[in-house]
Design brief:
about 150 residues, alpha/beta, 5 helices
């Protein structure tokens, strides 16, 4: 298993959890972004800078993902592409995406886009909380443990 991170929008606290997990599990972690990202010195942690542009990082992650890899992203279409290739997708808030949850999230995303385009203020995402951080760390640990026994 390799871990890929949609790093442009990934909270720093989640990156820190991923850095520690990559070292502990001795698994390759690659942060993909369209800007330089600071990482700790490690043989397991890398960055891949892609050109700026709509979905450039997302498309690169889907291209590089193999079955069994883990992708950390809040981007629903990216998660859908990863699952289609047999990978695992994990939201920074700790939700594991499945084929069914992707369909639900895409439908909700479409509805919210329609509401926003008609002038409805739909608000934004909830503030990132300690519970989100803990949910992510717990789910990541379970995924890494199950991949090491595979």
């Amino acid at each position: 298993m390799r871990i890929w991170v949609d790093a442009d929008a990934c909270p720093n606290v989640i990156k820190d959890i991923l850095f520690r997990a990559a070292e502990r599990a001795r698994v390759t972690l690659t942060l993909v972004a369209n800007q330089p990202i600071r990482i700790p010195p490690s043989q397991f942690i890398k960055t891949l800078q892609v050109p700026a542009g709509f979905d450039v990082a997302d498309n690169k992650i889907v291209d590089l993902t193999e079955a069994g890899d883990l992708v950390v992203t809040a981007d629903i279409p990216l998660a859908a592409g990863v699952i289609e290739k047999g990978g695992h997708a994990l939201d920074p808030r700790g939700e594991t995406y499945t084929t069914d949850s992707i369909k639900e999230r895409l439908a909700m995303r479409k509805l919210m886009d329609e509401l926003r385009s008609s002038g409805v203020d739909t608000g934004g995402p909830a503030t990132f909380s300690n519970a989100d951080r803990q949910a992510f760390a717990s789910k990541l640990d379970r995924l890494l443990a199950s991949s090491s026994h595979a």
